Amino acid sequence: MPRQQFNVNLDPALVRRIKHHAVDVQLSLSDLVARVLQQHLDKESAMTEDQPALILQPMVHVEDMPASVAFYEALGATVEHGSRDGDFVMLRIGAGRVGLLAHPPNPEQHEGQVELNFETTEPLETVEARLRAAAAVTIAQPTTDEGFGRQLQVTTPDGLLIKINELDRELYT
Question: What does the pLDDT average to over 45-67?
Answer without folding.
Answer: 77
